[in-house]
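To illustrate the input format used throughout this study, we show a single complete record. The first block contains the structure-token representation of the backbone; no residue identities are included at this stage. The design step must infer an amino acid for every position from geometry alone.
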């Protein structure tokens, strides 16, 4: 199934340019944390999609056509682009902070610890993508693809591991890049992600056969033991 060019161009910009915005905006070419941030974004995307393509060949096409589906939940037509935009605001804010040297800064220990959390978030989200054939870019019940409950891999521990991993990465980004100002978009983005998780979970409970039974076995939506 061919992927339309109009979906490829913005995807390339989002994947190859956005992760390196902190360096491009600040002009700090020796900023190792920003290089790690950018490399993790690019390599994480390439590796996870390659693995997903090998296991679920139709998933990449599904995600490329995310914004074209007519059965996308109305609220996700707002939340999905909002989360995507928020993901770009993070590196922009960090780049501006570094360029203008807005105080205060974070210490090396905090940045090193946040790197571990950041990478763990990427790994968890990628694991969810590779495991779940129905890991679409928008919330919809995929009747056209035989949508059913996925309970393997990270879905044994939480019902929305993709969002959980993204949440870890979002919240770790300000500390990894040493930017208090980046906390503002990170918190707003995290709130949007939690709202999206709640709405998606409710939709799956009411519309996806077998999901209610699955939710009785796996209680956690995002954070085991918390919610």
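Output of the design step:
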């Amino acid at each position: 199934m061919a992927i339309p060019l109009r979906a490829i161009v913005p995807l390339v910009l989002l994947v190859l340019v956005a992760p390196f915005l902190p360096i491009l905006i600040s002009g700090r070419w020796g900023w190792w944390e920003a290089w790690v941030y950018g490399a993790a974004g690019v390599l994480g995307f390439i590796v996870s999609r390659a693995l997903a393509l090998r296991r679920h060949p139709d998933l990449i096409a599904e995600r490329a056509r995310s914004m074209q589906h007519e059965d996308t939940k109305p609220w996700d037509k707002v939340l999905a682009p909002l989360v995507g935009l928020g993901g770009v605001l993070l590196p922009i804010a960090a780049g501006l902070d570094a360029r203008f040297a807005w105080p205060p800064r974070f210490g090396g220990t905090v940045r090193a610890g946040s790197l571990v959390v950041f990478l763990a978030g990427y790994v968890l989200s990628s694991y969810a993508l590779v495991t779940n054939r129905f890991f679409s870019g928008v919330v919809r019940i995929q009747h056209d693809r035989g949508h059913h409950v996925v309970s393997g891999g990270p879905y044994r521990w939480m019902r929305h591991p993709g969002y959980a991993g993204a949440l870890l990465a979002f919240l770790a980004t300000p500390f990894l890049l040493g930017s208090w100002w980046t906390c503002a978009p990170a918190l707003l983005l995290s709130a949007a992600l939690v709202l999206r998780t709640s709405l998606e979970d409710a939709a799956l409970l009411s519309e996806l056969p077998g999901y209610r039974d699955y939710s009785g076995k796996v209680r956690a939506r995002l954070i085991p033991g918390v919610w």
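Structural context for interpreting the output: The mean pLDDT is 89. The CA atoms of residues 8 and 47 lie 17 Å apart.
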